Amino acid sequence: MNRIHEKKYIQCILVSMAVIAAYTLWSLFKNFISVPMIKAIMAELIVFAAAYLIRCGIKKQFTADTAIKAVIFAGIVMRIGYMLYTPCNVRSHDMWEISTQGHGHAAYILGLLQNNSLPQSNEIQFYQQPFFYIVGSVASKLINMITSSDDVFYFVDAAKTVSCAASCMVLIIAGSICDTFKLKDTEKLAAMLIVAFQPCFFLSIRVTPDILCTFFMTLALLFTFRWHASPDWKNTLILAFVYGFGVMTKISVAVLAFFTAVVFAVKLVQLIKEKKALPVIFRLAVFGIISLPLGLWYNVRNYILFSQKFGYVLELGEKSKLYVGNHSLFQRFVIPDFNNILSSPYDYVWDDYNLFVYSVKSSLFGEFEFEVPSFIPIILYISAMVLSVLAVIAAVSALKHFTEDKMTAALSAVCAVFLVSVVIFNLRYPYGCSMDFRYSTFLIIPFAILLAKQLMRYGSKITKNMLYMCIAMFSCSSCLMYILA
Question: pTM surpassing 0.70?
Protein backbone atom coordinates (compact mmCIF):
# COMPACT_ATOMS: atom_id res chain seq x y z
CA MET A 1 0.00 0.00 0.00
CA ASN A 2 2.86 2.39 0.78
CA ARG A 3 4.30 1.74 -2.68
CA ILE A 4 0.95 2.66 -4.28
CA HIS A 5 0.79 5.82 -2.15
CA GLU A 6 4.33 6.85 -3.13
CA LYS A 7 4.32 5.88 -6.82
CA LYS A 8 2.01 8.21 -8.69
CA TYR A 9 2.35 6.26 -11.94
CA ILE A 10 0.84 3.21 -10.20
CA GLN A 11 -2.06 5.37 -9.03
CA CYS A 12 -2.53 6.64 -12.59
CA ILE A 13 -2.60 3.08 -13.96
CA LEU A 14 -5.07 1.95 -11.30
CA VAL A 15 -7.42 4.89 -11.82
CA SER A 16 -7.33 4.36 -15.60
CA MET A 17 -8.24 0.71 -15.06
CA ALA A 18 -11.05 1.81 -12.72
CA VAL A 19 -12.44 4.13 -15.42
CA ILE A 20 -12.39 1.36 -18.04
CA ALA A 21 -13.94 -1.12 -15.59
CA ALA A 22 -16.69 1.32 -14.54
CA TYR A 23 -17.64 2.09 -18.13
CA THR A 24 -17.53 -1.58 -19.14
CA LEU A 25 -19.80 -2.59 -16.24
CA TRP A 26 -22.19 0.24 -17.07
CA SER A 27 -22.19 -0.82 -20.71
CA LEU A 28 -22.98 -4.43 -19.81
CA PHE A 29 -25.83 -3.50 -17.47
CA LYS A 30 -26.98 -0.16 -18.91
CA ASN A 31 -30.54 -1.43 -19.31
CA PHE A 32 -30.74 -1.81 -15.54
CA ILE A 33 -28.72 1.26 -14.47
CA SER A 34 -30.59 4.56 -14.73
CA VAL A 35 -29.13 8.07 -14.58
CA PRO A 36 -30.80 8.74 -11.17
CA MET A 37 -29.19 5.54 -9.88
CA ILE A 38 -25.71 6.70 -10.97
CA LYS A 39 -26.25 10.10 -9.35
CA ALA A 40 -27.48 8.46 -6.16
CA ILE A 41 -24.33 6.32 -6.00
CA MET A 42 -22.20 9.44 -6.58
CA ALA A 43 -23.98 11.24 -3.72
CA GLU A 44 -23.60 8.24 -1.40
CA LEU A 45 -19.87 7.96 -2.09
CA ILE A 46 -19.34 11.70 -1.52
CA VAL A 47 -21.29 11.49 1.77
CA PHE A 48 -19.26 8.40 2.70
CA ALA A 49 -16.00 10.36 2.19
CA ALA A 50 -17.32 13.25 4.31
CA ALA A 51 -18.54 10.85 7.04
CA TYR A 52 -15.13 9.17 7.09
CA LEU A 53 -13.44 12.51 7.72
CA ILE A 54 -15.94 13.32 10.48
CA ARG A 55 -15.24 9.93 12.07
CA CYS A 56 -11.48 10.64 11.90
CA GLY A 57 -12.11 13.97 13.61
CA ILE A 58 -14.14 12.38 16.41
CA LYS A 59 -11.40 9.79 16.98
CA LYS A 60 -8.77 12.57 16.83
CA GLN A 61 -7.14 10.89 13.82
CA PHE A 62 -7.92 13.68 11.37
CA THR A 63 -4.95 14.92 9.32
CA ALA A 64 -4.64 17.10 6.25
CA ASP A 65 -3.18 14.11 4.39
CA THR A 66 -6.32 12.08 5.17
CA ALA A 67 -8.48 14.96 3.98
CA ILE A 68 -6.48 15.23 0.73
CA LYS A 69 -6.98 11.51 0.04
CA ALA A 70 -10.73 11.92 0.62
CA VAL A 71 -10.80 14.93 -1.72
CA ILE A 72 -8.99 12.99 -4.47
CA PHE A 73 -11.42 10.09 -3.99
CA ALA A 74 -14.41 12.44 -4.22
CA GLY A 75 -12.95 14.17 -7.28
CA ILE A 76 -12.53 10.83 -9.05
CA VAL A 77 -16.10 9.83 -8.11
CA MET A 78 -17.42 13.05 -9.66
CA ARG A 79 -15.43 12.48 -12.85
CA ILE A 80 -16.39 8.84 -13.35
CA GLY A 81 -20.01 9.51 -12.40
CA TYR A 82 -20.30 12.39 -14.86
CA MET A 83 -18.80 10.21 -17.59
CA LEU A 84 -21.32 7.43 -16.96
CA TYR A 85 -24.46 9.58 -16.91
CA THR A 86 -23.51 11.86 -19.83
CA PRO A 87 -23.69 10.33 -23.33
CA CYS A 88 -21.06 11.47 -25.83
CA ASN A 89 -23.62 13.52 -27.79
CA VAL A 90 -24.80 15.50 -24.72
CA ARG A 91 -22.96 18.78 -23.99
CA SER A 92 -20.63 17.86 -26.82
CA HIS A 93 -18.65 19.92 -29.31
CA ASP A 94 -18.11 19.24 -33.01
CA MET A 95 -19.27 15.62 -32.88
CA TRP A 96 -21.30 15.96 -36.10
CA GLU A 97 -22.98 12.84 -37.37
CA ILE A 98 -22.00 9.51 -35.87
CA SER A 99 -20.85 7.82 -39.05
CA THR A 100 -17.75 7.64 -41.21
CA GLN A 101 -19.46 10.06 -43.62
CA GLY A 102 -19.21 12.92 -41.13
CA HIS A 103 -16.25 15.23 -40.56
CA GLY A 104 -16.34 15.60 -36.78
CA HIS A 105 -14.79 13.84 -33.80
CA ALA A 106 -17.16 10.87 -34.19
CA ALA A 107 -16.14 10.23 -37.81
CA TYR A 108 -12.44 10.50 -36.85
CA ILE A 109 -12.87 7.72 -34.26
CA LEU A 110 -15.01 5.56 -36.54
CA GLY A 111 -12.56 5.93 -39.42
CA LEU A 112 -9.83 4.45 -37.24
CA LEU A 113 -12.09 1.70 -35.91
CA GLN A 114 -13.88 0.66 -39.10
CA ASN A 115 -11.41 1.57 -41.83
CA ASN A 116 -8.16 1.24 -39.86
CA SER A 117 -7.04 4.54 -41.37
CA LEU A 118 -6.37 8.15 -40.50
CA PRO A 119 -8.61 10.80 -42.14
CA GLN A 120 -8.21 11.04 -45.89
CA SER A 121 -8.81 14.80 -45.85
CA ASN A 122 -8.23 17.70 -43.46
CA GLU A 123 -11.81 18.95 -43.58
CA ILE A 124 -13.63 20.26 -40.46
CA GLN A 125 -12.12 18.30 -37.50
CA PHE A 126 -9.87 16.02 -39.57
CA TYR A 127 -7.00 18.52 -39.32
CA GLN A 128 -6.71 17.70 -35.59
CA GLN A 129 -3.66 15.88 -34.22
CA PRO A 130 -4.34 12.11 -34.04
CA PHE A 131 -3.12 10.78 -30.68
CA PHE A 132 -6.39 11.14 -28.73
CA TYR A 133 -8.33 9.47 -31.52
CA ILE A 134 -5.83 6.61 -31.78
CA VAL A 135 -5.91 5.91 -28.02
CA GLY A 136 -9.69 6.45 -27.95
CA SER A 137 -10.25 3.94 -30.74
CA VAL A 138 -8.03 1.36 -28.97
CA ALA A 139 -9.95 1.82 -25.69
CA SER A 140 -13.26 1.65 -27.56
CA LYS A 141 -12.27 -1.53 -29.41
CA LEU A 142 -11.27 -3.21 -26.13
CA ILE A 143 -14.48 -2.22 -24.31
CA ASN A 144 -16.83 -3.08 -27.17
CA MET A 145 -15.08 -6.39 -27.68
CA ILE A 146 -15.80 -7.26 -24.02
CA THR A 147 -19.41 -6.06 -24.24
CA SER A 148 -19.95 -7.58 -27.73
CA SER A 149 -21.49 -4.32 -28.93
CA ASP A 150 -21.71 -3.49 -32.63
CA ASP A 151 -23.54 -0.17 -32.22
CA VAL A 152 -21.53 2.67 -33.79
CA PHE A 153 -22.84 5.06 -31.12
CA TYR A 154 -21.07 3.07 -28.41
CA PHE A 155 -17.98 2.75 -30.60
CA VAL A 156 -17.72 6.54 -30.30
CA ASP A 157 -19.09 6.85 -26.76
CA ALA A 158 -16.50 4.47 -25.28
CA ALA A 159 -13.69 6.78 -26.40
CA LYS A 160 -14.67 9.25 -23.66
CA THR A 161 -13.06 6.84 -21.17
CA VAL A 162 -9.71 8.24 -22.33
CA SER A 163 -10.84 11.77 -21.44
CA CYS A 164 -12.14 10.57 -18.06
CA ALA A 165 -8.89 8.74 -17.25
CA ALA A 166 -6.90 11.83 -18.27
CA SER A 167 -9.04 14.06 -16.03
CA CYS A 168 -8.53 11.71 -13.06
CA MET A 169 -4.77 11.52 -13.68
CA VAL A 170 -4.52 15.32 -13.78
CA LEU A 171 -5.87 15.33 -10.22
CA ILE A 172 -3.22 12.84 -9.10
CA ILE A 173 -0.39 14.72 -10.86
CA ALA A 174 -1.58 18.01 -9.36
CA GLY A 175 -0.78 16.52 -5.93
CA SER A 176 2.80 15.84 -7.08
CA ILE A 177 3.15 19.43 -8.32
CA CYS A 178 1.93 20.68 -4.92
CA ASP A 179 4.69 18.59 -3.30
CA THR A 180 7.26 19.98 -5.75
CA PHE A 181 6.36 23.49 -4.59
CA LYS A 182 6.53 22.38 -0.94
CA LEU A 183 2.99 23.42 -0.09
CA LYS A 184 2.07 22.99 3.54
CA ASP A 185 -0.71 20.52 4.32
CA THR A 186 -3.46 23.15 4.55
CA GLU A 187 -2.20 24.86 1.38
CA LYS A 188 -2.14 21.58 -0.53
CA LEU A 189 -5.65 20.75 0.69
CA ALA A 190 -6.94 24.12 -0.57
CA ALA A 191 -5.30 23.64 -3.99
CA MET A 192 -6.54 20.07 -4.32
CA LEU A 193 -10.11 21.06 -3.46
CA ILE A 194 -10.09 23.52 -6.37
CA VAL A 195 -8.63 20.99 -8.82
CA ALA A 196 -10.88 18.15 -7.61
CA PHE A 197 -14.14 20.05 -7.97
CA GLN A 198 -13.47 22.51 -10.80
CA PRO A 199 -16.35 21.66 -13.19
CA CYS A 200 -14.22 22.06 -16.32
CA PHE A 201 -12.62 18.73 -15.37
CA PHE A 202 -16.07 17.08 -15.51
CA LEU A 203 -17.27 18.91 -18.63
CA SER A 204 -14.08 18.04 -20.53
CA ILE A 205 -14.94 14.33 -20.37
CA ARG A 206 -15.96 14.29 -24.02
CA VAL A 207 -14.87 12.69 -27.26
CA THR A 208 -12.38 15.51 -27.88
CA PRO A 209 -8.61 15.83 -27.30
CA ASP A 210 -8.92 18.79 -24.88
CA ILE A 211 -8.48 17.10 -21.50
CA LEU A 212 -5.81 14.70 -22.75
CA CYS A 213 -3.97 17.82 -23.90
CA THR A 214 -4.35 19.20 -20.33
CA PHE A 215 -2.96 15.93 -18.94
CA PHE A 216 0.21 16.21 -21.03
CA MET A 217 0.67 19.88 -20.16
CA THR A 218 0.30 19.12 -16.45
CA LEU A 219 2.82 16.30 -16.74
CA ALA A 220 5.18 18.57 -18.72
CA LEU A 221 4.94 21.24 -16.01
CA LEU A 222 5.83 18.72 -13.29
CA PHE A 223 8.81 17.26 -15.16
CA THR A 224 10.11 20.65 -16.30
CA PHE A 225 10.64 21.55 -12.65
CA ARG A 226 12.01 18.10 -11.89
CA TRP A 227 14.41 18.41 -14.83
CA HIS A 228 15.63 21.78 -13.53
CA ALA A 229 16.36 20.16 -10.16
CA SER A 230 17.98 17.11 -11.80
CA PRO A 231 18.70 17.22 -15.58
CA ASP A 232 19.39 13.49 -15.77
CA TRP A 233 18.47 10.98 -18.48
CA LYS A 234 15.24 9.90 -16.75
CA ASN A 235 13.72 13.39 -16.58
CA THR A 236 15.01 14.29 -20.06
CA LEU A 237 13.49 11.23 -21.72
CA ILE A 238 10.19 11.55 -19.87
CA LEU A 239 9.91 15.18 -20.95
CA ALA A 240 10.76 14.24 -24.54
CA PHE A 241 7.98 11.65 -24.74
CA VAL A 242 5.52 13.87 -22.84
CA TYR A 243 6.02 16.71 -25.32
CA GLY A 244 6.07 14.32 -28.28
CA PHE A 245 2.78 12.66 -27.38
CA GLY A 246 1.38 15.98 -26.10
CA VAL A 247 1.92 17.83 -29.38
CA MET A 248 0.63 14.73 -31.21
CA THR A 249 -2.55 15.24 -29.13
CA LYS A 250 -2.92 18.98 -29.71
CA ILE A 251 -0.52 21.53 -31.12
CA SER A 252 -1.28 23.97 -28.26
CA VAL A 253 0.88 21.84 -25.94
CA ALA A 254 3.79 23.56 -27.71
CA VAL A 255 2.87 26.78 -25.83
CA LEU A 256 4.25 25.30 -22.62
CA ALA A 257 7.36 24.21 -24.52
CA PHE A 258 8.42 27.89 -24.64
CA PHE A 259 8.60 27.89 -20.84
CA THR A 260 10.46 24.58 -20.78
CA ALA A 261 12.92 25.92 -23.38
CA VAL A 262 13.68 28.90 -21.11
CA VAL A 263 14.26 26.50 -18.19
CA PHE A 264 16.61 24.47 -20.41
CA ALA A 265 18.51 27.61 -21.39
CA VAL A 266 18.84 28.92 -17.81
CA LYS A 267 20.10 25.55 -16.58
CA LEU A 268 22.49 25.24 -19.50
CA VAL A 269 24.03 28.66 -18.82
CA GLN A 270 24.50 27.65 -15.19
CA LEU A 271 26.18 24.36 -16.18
CA ILE A 272 28.42 26.08 -18.76
CA LYS A 273 29.74 28.32 -15.99
CA GLU A 274 30.39 25.21 -13.92
CA LYS A 275 31.95 23.44 -16.98
CA LYS A 276 29.44 20.58 -16.68
CA ALA A 277 27.28 21.31 -19.72
CA LEU A 278 28.46 18.70 -22.26
CA PRO A 279 26.40 15.70 -20.98
CA VAL A 280 23.27 17.89 -20.73
CA ILE A 281 23.77 19.26 -24.27
CA PHE A 282 23.86 15.66 -25.52
CA ARG A 283 20.67 14.82 -23.56
CA LEU A 284 18.90 17.87 -24.99
CA ALA A 285 19.88 16.79 -28.49
CA VAL A 286 18.25 13.40 -27.80
CA PHE A 287 15.24 15.26 -26.38
CA GLY A 288 14.82 17.04 -29.74
CA ILE A 289 15.39 13.86 -31.76
CA ILE A 290 12.56 12.14 -29.87
CA SER A 291 10.01 14.94 -29.28
CA LEU A 292 10.05 16.78 -32.63
CA PRO A 293 9.33 13.84 -35.00
CA LEU A 294 6.86 12.32 -32.53
CA GLY A 295 4.94 15.56 -32.15
CA LEU A 296 5.07 16.88 -35.69
CA TRP A 297 4.81 13.88 -38.03
CA TYR A 298 1.07 14.40 -38.56
CA ASN A 299 1.64 18.06 -39.44
CA VAL A 300 4.22 16.98 -42.02
CA ARG A 301 1.81 14.37 -43.40
CA ASN A 302 -1.02 16.92 -43.74
CA TYR A 303 1.32 19.47 -45.29
CA ILE A 304 2.40 16.95 -47.93
CA LEU A 305 -1.12 15.64 -48.61
CA PHE A 306 -3.24 18.78 -48.22
CA SER A 307 -0.78 21.74 -48.08
CA GLN A 308 -2.02 22.34 -44.52
CA LYS A 309 0.05 25.00 -42.76
CA PHE A 310 1.68 24.28 -39.40
CA GLY A 311 -0.55 25.56 -36.59
CA TYR A 312 -3.62 25.54 -38.86
CA VAL A 313 -7.01 26.01 -37.13
CA LEU A 314 -10.36 25.85 -38.89
CA GLU A 315 -11.53 29.34 -39.93
CA LEU A 316 -15.21 30.32 -39.49
CA GLY A 317 -15.11 33.68 -41.27
CA GLU A 318 -16.49 37.11 -40.40
CA LYS A 319 -20.00 36.14 -41.51
CA SER A 320 -20.25 33.53 -38.77
CA LYS A 321 -22.79 34.25 -36.02
CA LEU A 322 -19.98 33.46 -33.58
CA TYR A 323 -17.81 36.35 -34.81
CA VAL A 324 -16.93 38.87 -32.07
CA GLY A 325 -14.28 40.88 -33.94
CA ASN A 326 -16.79 43.73 -34.33
CA HIS A 327 -16.32 44.54 -30.62
CA SER A 328 -13.37 46.67 -29.54
CA LEU A 329 -10.25 45.12 -28.01
CA PHE A 330 -11.03 47.11 -24.86
CA GLN A 331 -14.45 45.44 -24.59
CA ARG A 332 -13.09 41.98 -25.35
CA PHE A 333 -9.93 41.89 -23.22
CA VAL A 334 -9.92 44.72 -20.66
CA ILE A 335 -13.11 45.90 -18.98
CA PRO A 336 -15.86 43.27 -18.66
CA ASP A 337 -19.49 44.06 -19.35
CA PHE A 338 -20.96 44.31 -15.84
CA ASN A 339 -24.47 43.71 -17.16
CA ASN A 340 -23.16 40.43 -18.52
CA ILE A 341 -21.54 39.57 -15.18
CA LEU A 342 -24.75 40.19 -13.25
CA SER A 343 -27.36 39.00 -15.73
CA SER A 344 -26.70 35.23 -15.69
CA PRO A 345 -24.14 32.68 -14.53
CA TYR A 346 -24.31 31.08 -17.99
CA ASP A 347 -22.50 31.95 -21.22
CA TYR A 348 -24.28 32.82 -24.44
CA VAL A 349 -21.92 31.81 -27.22
CA TRP A 350 -23.79 33.89 -29.83
CA ASP A 351 -23.80 37.14 -27.83
CA ASP A 352 -20.98 37.29 -25.25
CA TYR A 353 -17.62 38.77 -26.15
CA ASN A 354 -15.53 39.47 -23.01
CA LEU A 355 -12.77 36.90 -22.57
CA PHE A 356 -12.47 37.02 -18.76
CA VAL A 357 -16.19 36.68 -18.03
CA TYR A 358 -16.69 34.05 -20.72
CA SER A 359 -13.74 32.03 -19.40
CA VAL A 360 -15.05 31.98 -15.83
CA LYS A 361 -18.58 31.05 -16.86
CA SER A 362 -17.53 28.40 -19.37
CA SER A 363 -15.14 26.84 -16.83
CA LEU A 364 -18.21 26.15 -14.68
CA PHE A 365 -20.97 25.34 -17.15
CA GLY A 366 -19.38 25.11 -20.59
CA GLU A 367 -21.65 26.73 -23.15
CA PHE A 368 -24.76 25.10 -21.69
CA GLU A 369 -27.59 25.73 -19.22
CA PHE A 370 -28.81 23.29 -16.58
CA GLU A 371 -32.15 22.51 -15.00
CA VAL A 372 -31.14 22.74 -11.35
CA PRO A 373 -32.31 24.99 -8.50
CA SER A 374 -31.08 28.46 -9.50
CA PHE A 375 -29.28 29.16 -6.22
CA ILE A 376 -26.73 26.38 -6.93
CA PRO A 377 -25.19 27.78 -10.16
CA ILE A 378 -25.34 31.29 -8.67
CA ILE A 379 -23.34 30.26 -5.58
CA LEU A 380 -20.89 28.35 -7.80
CA TYR A 381 -20.54 31.35 -10.11
CA ILE A 382 -20.03 33.94 -7.34
CA SER A 383 -17.44 31.81 -5.52
CA ALA A 384 -15.61 31.12 -8.80
CA MET A 385 -15.54 34.83 -9.68
CA VAL A 386 -14.01 35.68 -6.28
CA LEU A 387 -11.47 32.84 -6.57
CA SER A 388 -10.53 34.00 -10.08
CA VAL A 389 -9.81 37.53 -8.87
CA LEU A 390 -7.84 36.19 -5.89
CA ALA A 391 -5.86 33.91 -8.25
CA VAL A 392 -4.77 36.91 -10.32
CA ILE A 393 -3.74 38.71 -7.11
CA ALA A 394 -1.78 35.60 -6.04
CA ALA A 395 0.01 35.41 -9.40
CA VAL A 396 1.06 39.07 -9.15
CA SER A 397 2.12 38.50 -5.53
CA ALA A 398 4.36 35.60 -6.63
CA LEU A 399 6.13 37.86 -9.13
CA LYS A 400 6.69 40.42 -6.38
CA HIS A 401 8.35 37.74 -4.23
CA PHE A 402 10.66 36.71 -7.10
CA THR A 403 13.90 37.09 -5.13
CA GLU A 404 12.52 35.08 -2.19
CA ASP A 405 10.87 32.27 -4.15
CA LYS A 406 11.98 31.95 -7.78
CA MET A 407 10.14 28.66 -8.35
CA THR A 408 6.75 30.12 -7.45
CA ALA A 409 7.48 33.20 -9.53
CA ALA A 410 8.29 30.87 -12.42
CA LEU A 411 4.87 29.25 -11.94
CA SER A 412 3.31 32.69 -12.20
CA ALA A 413 5.29 33.20 -15.41
CA VAL A 414 3.78 29.96 -16.77
CA CYS A 415 0.31 31.44 -16.22
CA ALA A 416 1.36 34.67 -17.92
CA VAL A 417 2.80 32.85 -20.97
CA PHE A 418 -0.33 30.73 -21.32
CA LEU A 419 -2.67 33.72 -20.92
CA VAL A 420 -0.74 35.62 -23.60
CA SER A 421 -1.20 32.63 -25.92
CA VAL A 422 -4.95 32.63 -25.17
CA VAL A 423 -5.21 36.33 -26.03
CA ILE A 424 -3.21 35.83 -29.24
CA PHE A 425 -5.46 32.90 -30.17
CA ASN A 426 -8.57 35.03 -29.62
CA LEU A 427 -7.09 37.87 -31.67
CA ARG A 428 -6.35 35.43 -34.47
CA TYR A 429 -9.70 33.64 -34.18
CA PRO A 430 -12.24 36.19 -32.86
CA TYR A 431 -15.21 33.89 -32.25
CA GLY A 432 -17.38 33.14 -29.25
CA CYS A 433 -16.28 29.50 -29.18
CA SER A 434 -12.61 30.54 -29.08
CA MET A 435 -13.16 31.93 -25.58
CA ASP A 436 -14.38 28.59 -24.19
CA PHE A 437 -12.31 27.59 -21.17
CA ARG A 438 -12.06 24.00 -22.44
CA TYR A 439 -8.94 25.15 -24.30
CA SER A 440 -7.42 26.59 -21.10
CA THR A 441 -8.22 23.94 -18.49
CA PHE A 442 -4.50 23.51 -17.74
CA LEU A 443 -4.47 26.96 -16.08
CA ILE A 444 -6.46 25.63 -13.13
CA ILE A 445 -3.44 23.74 -11.76
CA PRO A 446 -0.87 26.58 -11.56
CA PHE A 447 -3.51 29.09 -10.48
CA ALA A 448 -4.79 26.77 -7.71
CA ILE A 449 -1.25 26.31 -6.38
CA LEU A 450 -0.48 30.02 -6.53
CA LEU A 451 -3.78 30.84 -4.86
CA ALA A 452 -3.22 28.39 -2.01
CA LYS A 453 0.45 29.13 -1.45
CA GLN A 454 0.57 32.90 -1.80
CA LEU A 455 -2.67 33.89 -0.08
CA MET A 456 -2.55 31.33 2.72
CA ARG A 457 1.10 32.08 3.43
CA TYR A 458 1.27 35.83 2.91
CA GLY A 459 -2.35 37.00 2.88
CA SER A 460 -4.11 38.90 5.64
CA LYS A 461 -6.54 37.19 8.01
CA ILE A 462 -9.49 38.63 6.08
CA THR A 463 -8.08 37.35 2.78
CA LYS A 464 -7.49 33.88 4.22
CA ASN A 465 -11.02 33.68 5.67
CA MET A 466 -12.44 34.79 2.32
CA LEU A 467 -10.40 32.10 0.59
CA TYR A 468 -11.54 29.36 2.99
CA MET A 469 -15.18 30.39 2.61
CA CYS A 470 -15.01 30.63 -1.20
CA ILE A 471 -13.30 27.24 -1.59
CA ALA A 472 -15.92 25.61 0.68
CA MET A 473 -18.80 27.22 -1.26
CA PHE A 474 -17.17 26.36 -4.57
CA SER A 475 -16.57 22.70 -3.72
CA CYS A 476 -20.02 22.03 -2.24
CA SER A 477 -21.96 23.83 -4.97
CA SER A 478 -19.90 22.10 -7.69
CA CYS A 479 -20.75 18.65 -6.28
CA LEU A 480 -24.43 19.59 -5.93
CA MET A 481 -24.51 21.05 -9.44
CA TYR A 482 -23.16 17.97 -11.17
CA ILE A 483 -25.00 15.42 -9.06
CA LEU A 484 -28.33 17.17 -9.69
CA ALA A 485 -27.66 18.29 -13.31
Answer: yes
